[in-house]
Amino acid sequence: MRRRLAQAFAVAAFAAVAVTLSGSPAGAHGFSSTVYADLTSPEQGHVRAVLGLEYDLLVVSAADAGHDDPLFRQGTAAFEARDPAGQAAALQAHAASVTKYVTERFRVTADGQACTPAQDGGFGIEQRDGVPYTLLTLDYRCPAAESHEVAATLFGDAEGYVRDTKTILTYHLDLTSGSAALDARQPSFSTHQAWTQRFWEFFRLGAEHLLTGLDHILFLLALIAGSRRLREIVLAATTFTLAHSVTFVLAALGLVHVPAEIIEPLIALSIAVVAAWPLWRMWRRGSPAGELGDDGRFSLDRAGWIRLGVVFCFGLAHGLGFASALGIDAAWSWTLLWSLLVFNLGIETVQLAIIALVFPLLALLRRRSPAAPRWTTGAIAAAVSVVGLTWFVQRVAGG
């Protein structure tokens, strides 16, 4: 049994490492970007926008759009040196190119009439999601109006640097406040937008976040591989849900904030540990971690309860990762709480859909061959565990 398990682990490990090293990013969402924008209206006819934009992406996009090679050279050198002061200085030295790029792609209108933008202050640099972000404040002068519209097309797919850029907005405009999620399919919103449309935007954002976040999918597959019955899978998934909902709320209240440099490696480690759990049981007992099925009985042994505790603890870390995706990192982000719940609902819908799809397939394999659960569980667990460990090393090393 141990020899077969070692063979399965070796084959799965080779495949997982090949896939990981051939292009899977060390981060969860390395090929996409998120823009953060907070809009307020200090007075009538005045809209103030504070933007958070990924620094290195802003440098290459603005330099390319403005044919400003010195910006690219100076900005890239500061990025590689991990020098925040140098990064801000590079942007300031080429402020015309940077602000032109941004204002042409982040537009505010008042009842259909364009507002005039102007930069307010210099550039700031902060760490978000483990990478430097540029802080840029723009003042828009607008005609008197009852509603405002915002359109965001920053870092479009056509530029060729990233795909599927999301813009997360929070706003206090026109005697109302709320949040919105913009992307290529929905590039604009109005302060008079129906609540059902905003609901759908954040529901879709949550669903896409899970589907495009390979680390979260692998964590879910690890839960499925280590569960013996459908009810046990649902209990593990529910435990994970409760855990990341807790940190969602705590982050929104500003009661907890953990740097991405800690969260991202911890998420990767959680994938490896949860995936290795059934391998450890198979090694110790010389039998599968448990047979797939639903015999109508539900019970957990001591190891099962320990596993749930581990899942809950790691779910707390995943919750901080989800909160980061919505820009929830400031105290009392009340305007995002409603969006947070809808975002979470999108995540859970996809999570349950994956369980409903994968579990019956594994159960079907079991009926066809008594040995199928052992090989299937071993292969999935080994591959996911190796990928998790590889990501953990890459993220700790800053890769």
Mean residue pLDDT = 78
Q: Helix coverage percent of residues? A: 55-70%
Uncertain spans: 1-30, 287-297
Number of helices: 12
Which helices and strands occur, and which strands form pairs?
Elements: H1 2-21, E1 34-43, E2 46-54, H2 55-66, H3 69-80, H4 84-93, H5 95-105, E3 106-110, E4 113-114, E5 116-119, E6 124-128, E7 131-141, E8 148-152, E9 166-173, E10 176-182, E11 188-190, H6 195-212, H7 214-225, H8 230-252, H9 260-285, H10 302-325, H11 337-368, H12 372-396
Parallel strand pairs: 1-9
Antiparallel strand pairs: 1-2, 2-7, 3-4, 3-8, 5-7, 6-7, 8-11, 9-10
What does this structure look like?
By secondary structure, the protein is α+β, with helices and mostly antiparallel strands. The chain has 12 helices and 11 strands. Strands 1, 2, 5, 6, 7, 9 and 10 form a 7-stranded mixed sheet that branches. A 4-stranded antiparallel sheet has the order 4-3-8-11. A hairpin with a 2-residue loop joins strand 9 (166-173) and strand 10. Helix 3 packs antiparallel against helix 4, helix 7 packs parallel to helix 9 (260-285) and helix 9 packs antiparallel against helix 12 (372-396). The longest helix is centred in the last third of the chain and has 32 residues, at 337-368. 42% of the residues are buried. The model is unreliable at 1-30 and 287-297 (pLDDT under 50).
